[in-house]
Amino acid sequence: MNKTMLQGFNWFTSGDGQFYNRVSDYAWTLKDLGFTGIWLPPAFKGAAGGYDVGYGTYDLYDLGEFDQKGTVRTKNGTKEEYLKCIWVLKEAGIKVYADVVLNHKGGADYKELFKAVRVNPDNRLEEIEAPKDIEGFTGFNFPNRKGKYSEFVWNFNHFSGTDYDDITKESGIYKILGDNKSWSQGVSQEKGNYDYLMFADINHDHPDVKEELYRWADWYIQETRVDGFRLDAVKHINDYFVRDFVKYLQQKYEGFYVFAEYWSANTGSKDNYLYQTDYEFDLFDVKLHYNFYEASLQGEHFDLRTIFDNSLMINHPFHAVTFVDNHDSQPDQALSSWVEDWFKPLAYAMILMHKNGFPCVFAGDYFGIEGEHPQPGKKDTIDKLLYCRKNFAYGDQDDYFINSNCIGWVRQGDNEYPHPSATLFSNKEDSMISMYLGEHQANKTYSDYTGHHLAKVIINEAGYGDFLVHGQSVSIWIEDGINIK
């Protein structure tokens, strides 16, 4: 069966502590829909305690077990509920991918005095003040965990930068000074050197840090039994550290899957990153997301024949995690680039019916989003697309990219899933494309499973059908009368 992942959360997922319980209750439904994996939010305690989405990492060892940052549970629940949720999902045949944030730490337990130099936030290679003593929040000893699981204490030597000087009470980007210490290499060259992102920036070049993060990863995998990691913000982390870290995990844990967020639409940057990391893991197809975003804004003026141009889906099909939107691109977030509502069904059909990539469905699109700018869910529409992917998105793909406003393709099926399908997209007006399904399909009748088009298409003696699609819509044509188990 085709692989399909659910990103199980959005930025405004309820903080009532019942998230893990709700996911557990939904596990077998996810299996029936055709999902093979789920990406769960960061499970460790964040600097904002029970309100933290998880990306303000405080204690990697606290999965909702210790009274820290004003709470025992995390936003999503307790450790016991988290482990139960993973067990239930795995019993249902769903692989579980943990969101892992190793770039920074927030919510330090105490401040320290050390030398640092302030840098230009737009060019981190440019020092804008003389080196001086500052007081930064870089001490982490987790007093309420009391050394359980790990006695490692973090101090300023384990970080490369921070964002606040408590002596002057000034915010900024401060590079922490020390012997042979600087920003990491092997990071994005945006802003001169994009090692620093937020909070206290972890120095992955420090041998003690490397040892501790490897030790933590072993503990986490053995404690939770997750099937893989989603690595956050890797363009801010030394690429050789990430490469070696992933190699270690994949050699030690058979079948362990890793995919990562390198947020850039620059094709060259992605090509280089995959090369530098020895193609050890997959990346989110950010370029494809932005193609969807632009197509949704431009409407009929966007040339659909270019929708996959420069995407990982095409350039690196075996390393592309395809998505339409996620928690970072949703409205009001730092990377907001929300695909317009009318184009969402087309975009989801494009990632779910295409032969390339590992598609990820966003919970915000599926269930909807609450908050200041609520977004409706598209569960009914996406369910139909999931059904088509589960049963009719197999075998060779024949593309019909012959019109700037209407494209389509045929999936020919394979031995296990032998039934062909024809998918069409229009961003302008009602359209038709004649597509070949094979002479063995002659005289068979096809209907649009999405329900968008009510016509019937009969395959002619030569194996062609004149397939239809309404304007600004998508249609997926499958043979009438097929009994799917």
Write the layout of secondary structure elements.
Elements (H helix, E strand, L loop, with lengths): L4 E3 L11 H15 L3 E4 L4 E2 L10 E3 L19 H13 L3 E6 L3 E2 L4 E11 L2 E5 L4 E8 L19 E7 L4 E7 L23 E3 L4 H18 L3 E4 L7 H14 L4 E4 L6 H10 L5 E3 L1 H13 L13 H4 L4 E4 L20 H10 L4 E5 H4 L12 H14 L4 E7 L2 E6 L9 E6 L4 E6 L8 E4 L8 E2 L5 E6 L3 E7 L6
Helix pairs in contact: 1-2, 3-4, 8-10
Describe the structure.
With 485 residues, the protein is of the alpha/beta class. It has 3 domains: 5-102 and 207-392, Glycosidases (TIM Barrel, Alpha-Beta Barrel); 105-202, Beta Barrel (Elongation Factor Tu (Ef-tu), domain 3); 397-479, Golgi alpha-mannosidase II (Immunoglobulin-like, Sandwich), CATH 2.60.40. 24% of the residues lie in helices and 26% in strands. An 8-stranded parallel beta barrel has the order 1-2-5-13-14-15-16-17. Strands 6, 7, 8, 9, 10, 11 and 12 form a 7-stranded antiparallel beta sheet that branches. α5 links the parallel β14 (257-260) and β15 (282-284). α3 (207-224) packs parallel to α4. The protein is elongated and about 80 Å long. The two termini are 13 Å apart. 48% of the residues are buried. The model has no long low-confidence stretch (mean pLDDT 97).
List keywords for this structure.
3 domains; 485 residues; single chain; TIM Barrel; Immunoglobulin-like; 7-stranded antiparallel β-sheet; 10 helices; alpha/beta; elongated
